[in-house]
Amino acid sequence: MPFIRNEEAVAHEVHGGRFVSYVRPDTGSRDLAAWRVEIPAAMVAPVHEISEEETFYVLNGRVRLTIDGESAELGPGDAAVAPAGSELAVSNATDQAAHMWVTTRVGLTARLADGSSMTPPWAR
Prior knowledge:
The model has no long low-confidence stretch (mean pLDDT 96). The chain contains no helices and 13 strands. It has strands at 10-14, 17-23, 32-39, 43-44, 48-50, 54-60, 63-67, 70-74, 79-82, 87-92, 98-105, 110-112, 117-118.
């Protein structure tokens, strides 16, 4: 099934963000997962280490991405790549929500600062 309709998207609320999953194995993808994430105003997501490469494309708003200690504020049309094994932090210091499109490999795991890990449902 090469086409995924908006009504097939599944939303997940995790760590204060809203992740709307489109591309995943149960919508026909074998290797990739892709989703739209909403980063609310004044949100600071937990720092985590990712097991797979992730790409980010800012749809609207402004976000600060920190990848292995290097930070940049990104706006609409900006993109970033976080290599597998990198430490990642995402925040939104503005008073408006921001949205990004994110893509990674199916099976991504995130290890949090407390040592716990999770495989996000939008990457399964």
